[in-house]
Every structure is written in C-alpha cells, then in structure tokens.
Design a protein that fits this description.
The chain is an alpha+beta fold and 203 residues long. It is built from 8 helices and 10 strands. Strand 7 and strand 8 form a beta hairpin. Helix 1 packs parallel to helix 4 and helix 4 crosses helix 8. The chain starts with a strand and ends with a helix.
C-alpha cells in the first residue's frame, strides 16, 4: 500500500475527490466501486485500487511491490494526475520522443535524462531477456529495432521501448516513444514521470 507523500499528490487527491466518478471512468478508461469509493486502474498489466476515502493506492498483484515501493513516488504522481487530467481520446498511433513534446527540451540534460543508456547496457546482448521482462509487465512485442515492447503504464498512455543490440561496430542503444496524445492526457512533468517509471520497471 502507498499513500500521499508530497503536496503535489495531496492536490491531486483533493481535485480527484471533487470529480464525478462516471466522468473519470469514461475519460481515464478505469472502473469505480461505489461501495468502497475506489477506482480500479490497470498499470503494467496489474490491477490497483485507488481509495478516495483512505487516500491510498494498493494492490495484491504479484510484482506490484515495485510500483508501490521503490518506484512509489513516480507511480503515485502518475496515477493521480492521470485520473484528474485524462481525456476520452483515442491514440493517434503517431509516436513522439520525450524531448519533442511541448516543454520537453528540459528533459535532455541533468537529472531529468532518462537512463536509457543503462537500459541498453543491461540488455546489450540479451534480446530475449528484454522481451520477456516487457511481457512480465503486460507488454507485447513490437517491430522497431532489434527488439521493442509496447507497455501500458496507464490505460491511455502507451509507451514503446526499443532496443538495438550491441554489435562489432556500435554499442547497444535504447529509445522511448510515446503516442502524440500524451500531451493531451497529462501534464508535461507527469509525462516525464511516466517515462522514467517505465524505463525503471524494465531495469
């Protein structure tokens, strides 16, 4: 179980509590249990319960401890603001990189840089390991690169991670792609949080 740890999350809880559950469910592609006052959201193929009354996010799914514990700060922020901001809009299928979205240039330096180099090094010669890790988190295989997985950290936020294996000429390389609608669904800082969480889940 994980609960709010910072003002940004507290603000999201406050706003979420004022929204109509039927509108949130339609916009975010989630479910609401009126008896418990909780939303049910699927992240990386796992079910999570978002309790409005307790202001907690919990799950009994195998593997959920990673998101609720080590990656909890990214996960809470992403889930809560997604529920607040999500729109009932289909994905375009047009992919973009994090630095090309509105305001995304700040993610090209310093602590905001995604650890894609570390991810590539981890799977430099292990295509099957990369694909299996993605499948364990609800992902499916895609075509680009030597290996690609499509993951759903949030219902309307698909993320593609692509790996190019190491060879005699070039080192391994990894890249992350988002659907162009991500800018409509969540704020820029939350997009970064989702992207960072996705890379770390695969490490």
């Amino acid at each position: 179980m994980t609960d709010s740890k910072n003002p940004g999350e507290d603000k999201a809880w406050e706003i979420l509590g004022t929204l109509r559950p039927d509108a949130v469910c339609r916009a975010a592609a989630v479910y609401f249990d009126p008896r418990s006052g909780s939303y049910r959201i699927i992240s990386f193929g796992m079910d999570f319960e978002v309790s409005l009354q307790k202001r907690t996010i919990s799950s009994t799914a195998v593997g959920s401890d990673l998101l609720l514990g080590k990656l909890g700060s990214f996960f809470r922020l992403s889930v809560l603001w997604y529920l607040v901001h999500a729109r009932d809009i289909d994905c375009t299928g047009r992919v973009v990189k994090l630095h090309t979205i509105r305001g995304g240039e700040i993610f090209t330096a310093g602590s905001h840089v995604l650890p894609l180099e570390a991810l590539a090094q981890r799977y430099a010669k292990n295509r099957e390991g990369f694909l299996q890790k993605g499948q364990r988190h609800g992902g499916r295989t895609e075509r680009p690169g030597d290996a690609s997985v499509l993951l759903y950290p949030l219902p309307r936020i698909p993320v593609i991670l692509t790996l190019w294996l190491e060879d005699d000429e070039f080192p391994a390389r990894a890249d992350l792609f988002l659907d162009s609608t991500c800018e409509i669904q969540i704020p820029t800082d939350v997009i970064w949080s989702v992207a960072m969480m996705t890379v770390l889940v695969m490490m």
